[in-house]
């Protein structure tokens, strides 16, 4: 599909007839948010990172479980020690094998063997337990971050969705202004031709009409850009859809209470918990460790002849002094302090975001009332001045000033309604509440 065709499909008033089977889809803001959550590639990538974090947590959780290893191999050698040991493992040592000549220069022998080993850590100074808890906390942090990212995407959808509506309404206003300018131009040109108005008046209204045409082109470009931005957030190609949710805020109550599940704050808390467990894991490296090993082995020179053995070992290891391990403890403590300060900072940022969103809502609500009054007054002024200008009682500049005043009042009203709707979504995000009530 060409860019021009996409542009025509998106711009109200410039649409082309479409077959019934491809009629524009009615899209609510709630449906747009759900679609972005399901289809946006950025969120899908972060979902994969959540799965990775959960898998890492599972791996940490299983560190206390035994490890079972199986080995098998074939060997042929005439190296004296290996040859004697292989014969011993095959349970076929005889008196002749102790002959110095045979020991010093044995014939090459072959062997096929295998082994099964079970290793079980019994005590590791708390390192494994701390690692398991840290892994779980990091996984929870990633889940919480993903929840916050989803809400950030929801906020972006709200901004793009209603931004597209504002752009479309702005285009409607631009078309109205251009239509009025053409009507006035037609009237003025007729009077100029009759000699009732100066040529300068005709040129002035002609310039005003040209500015209106330029404004309409700019408004169309804003609509196309807003629609493409919304499509990008939804994770789909640009398509003709009808945005049916009203720009004016719904009657649902404004969120007021701070939620305990704000994603980024929860993530910061889990990261701090993980850092604390990291300190315990680092300190555990300075303590002794105890492990149990069980093994079974076999070595054959033929399929039917060979030796078997078993082993049990209980081991104790303690790095009495290790400068790197001690440095890692200091590093882990610094990481814990950083996580603690980061949590405090995130809480301060969240508090300010709540206050800023509330102030923005109050300001937008106040501007809406003023802008509505300004629009009503400006529409009346435009109608009166146009009528008086046709009667020859007012100069053209008065009509143009009235048109400019109405355009400014309309812009103020649209921007204020948009700011109020977006500020509500920002307040929901700051409080950790569902944006637009979408779970």
| Oligomer category | single chain
What CATH first level of the largest domain would be assigned? Mainly Alpha
Give the structural class. alpha+beta
Under the CATH scheme, the architecture of the largest domain is Up-down Bundle
Number of helices: 10
Mean pLDDT: 87
Which fold does the CATH topology of the largest domain refer to? Outer membrane efflux proteins (OEP)
Number of strands: 6
Q: Approximately what portion of the residues adopt beta-strand conformation?
A: 5-15%
Topology of helices and strands:
Blueprint: H1 3-10, E1 25-27, H2 29-39, H3 41-61, E2 67-77, H4 80-89, H5 100-104, E3 109-123, H6 127-193, H7 199-234, E4 241-243, H8 263-284, E5 289-300, E6 306-317, H9 323-390, H10 396-431
Parallel strand pairs: 1-4
Antiparallel strand pairs: 2-3, 3-5, 5-6
Overview of this protein structure:
The protein is an alpha+beta fold and 439 residues long. It has 2 domains: 3-39 and 125-286 and 324-433, Up-down Bundle (Outer membrane efflux proteins (OEP)), CATH 1.20.1600; 67-123 and 289-321, Outer membrane efflux proteins (OEP) (Single Sheet), CATH 2.20.200. The protein contains 10 helices and 6 strands, in the order H-E-H-H-E-H-H-E-H-H-E-H-E-E-H-H. The strands form 2 sheets. Strands 2-3-5-6 form a 4-stranded antiparallel β-sheet. The chain has a two-stranded parallel sheet with strand order 1-4. The longest helix has 68 residues, at 323-390.
Main traits of this protein?
4-stranded antiparallel beta sheet; elongated; Outer membrane efflux proteins (OEP); 10 helices; 6 strands; alpha+beta; 439 residues; 65% helix; two-stranded parallel ribbon
